[in-house]
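Issue 218. Parser rejects a valid record. Input:
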Amino acid sequence: MTPKNNLEIQGNFLTHPFAELIAEITNARLSGSLRVEDKAKKGVVYFRGGRIVFAASNARSSRLFEMLIAKGKLSKGDLTAAPSSSNDFEFAEFLERNGFLAKAEVDQLFSQQITLIVVDILSWESGDWNFSPLARARDGLDFRINAIELLVDHSRSLQPA
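Output the parser choked on:
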């Protein structure tokens, strides 16, 4: 790990894999953001007291509207009524306000989205990362993601060395 300054730490997945980073951040109960990048793929995972509370990615498959279409809960025609599906929070508010989904379903959808993003990043074989305790998730973003369960499932998918 190479310190960028006294607070930020950066490295790559070859020397410190993403699963190891999650385990270390969780164990140390750190708060902040872990930004990851591999060529055009980018993501950020936010931690609060060592818990994953939110994540975002530029992967189209992790967008709320894509997830709903894939589950058959929304059609592409339904998207035309939405003001914007590019901002997941505005889109979720629209869905809730117009009776497509209840608040509990929206929260569950965000938890599934975060899980999907973390699982996707766990599959990356290479990439660079930067952890900053200064960049934190805004108040109100606090979804319960079981990092230990994700890491166990990931370890079961690995091939023996």
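Fixed in the parser; the record now loads. The beta strands are 2-3, 9-12, 32-38, 41-48, 51-57, 128-132.
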